[in-house]
Please model this.
Amino acid sequence: MQPTIISCAVTGSAPTPEKNPAVPVTPIEIAESAIDAAKAGAAIVHCHVRDPITTRPSMAMNLYQEVTERIRGSGVDVILNLTTGPGARFSPSKHDAGIASNDSQMCMPLERVKHVIELRPDICSLDVVTMNRRRHVFLNHPEHLREMSAAIQTAGVKPELEVFDTGHILNAISLIEDGFIDSPPFFQFCLGIDFGAPATVEAVAMMKSMLPRDAIWSAFGISRFQFQMVAAAVLLGGHVRVGLEDNIYLEKGVLASSNAALVQKAARIIEDLGGSVASVAQARDLLSL
Model:
């Protein structure tokens, strides 16, 4: 078995400190949580940022910059992955389906990647997906994806191709074939999310079978599926992601005390299945960074 890369999704959009006090909010908290996760075995830390006052998701450049500088200045070697997901939430107004409601958050492509262009992390997420959610559409227009991909490529950053269902893989392959994504491509299967692919072994195997031959892939399940998908991904030859963005529990009824605790549990599962946790150097080699 190849060494297994652990990614840690430190803080996202949905989990809040009210649900679990361990969810980091301020740049200091996010950076410290990422550093602790790296010390626990995560080779990659995937970071969103939040408004320190409201705790709501943010796209503020100064917040991304502070998180990035704190992680890079910590002396801990880790692969930094910044999100480009915000700015793609659409819901129609009640009176005109062609006009966004106040709940929407739609941004132009270059606005969504400006922090990536300026800060140049090792990796950034790229959601190759348009899909229904419970109260809105996660909308990534094909031309927007091409523009974002081109800007990411020019910046020398590797995109993590986040796919939520099988059709999204085909969309990503078209970007690869058109020269917008360099080889080897890095896919992240996002499973168990409303109206996307289920968090099952069958779904992972199906999605894996559709990938380009040279692709590197990872998978995660949200909520109660997080550690089941760690095991499934390891046994099927992939890499794994855990973290408070996706799941706030260590086990049923027990809130996770930190991102590091989730990473440590993932590492135990990998090792119990006969694998080994990839070092940062091994992860860089596997991902051709």
